[in-house]
Amino acid sequence: NAGVTQTPKFRVLKTGQSMTLLCAQDMNHEYMYWYRQDPGMGLRLIHYSVGEGTTAKGEVPDGYNVSRLKKQNFLLGLESAAPSQTSVYFCASSYKGSGNTIYFGEGSWLTVV
Amino acid sequence: GENVEQHPSTLSVQEGDSAVIKCTYSDSASNYFPWYKQELGKRPQLIIDIRSNVGEKKDQRIAVTLNKTAKHFSLHITETQPEDSAVYFCAAITGYSSASKIIFGSGTRLSIRP
User: Residue B97 — very low, low, confident or very high, per pLDDT cuts 50/70/90?
Assistant: First the structure.
């Protein structure tokens, strides 16, 4: 049982490049989330999904797209990376929503130059 | 919109003393309040949580209190140890029928002085 795993862990992008962060969970969780963490800003929700085939916008969705084609995977895409997207990205999952423990992945450090 | 305010942003206490971190939330419908600990370079991990129908919960050296009327909740760590040094995040969660809204505080960096 690996929990929540993210790939890649580190990446450097040039402005305008695209990339996809992959999140996988093996706990059969319905809900999955993508957060970004910036110094002094805490964790901000980018997008989330309440089940396979569904996605919804969070607090800071602009510049990102997501897909949940399979229940266990939640992909975060950056179509045209910008320096403002330099951050640590955390994927998370939970069995359902409110009242259920949210489990985080180890984080992906992204630098856009 | 809804938000969660967390104070202080940094806290330094002597080893063995107690530490208290406070959060205030704005959404009166919030019904679940977890606390996460994040060590340097690692993922946030749940350390304790409380639901809206409970006023206090303890787990060894950590405890959480909730005041629904005032819409604030606090994390209490007693007999602090060096391994308690980390960033702590509170969160307020509001449940709906098919989705939930999770708002995190901005974090408190706790340092334990030897």
Answer: very low
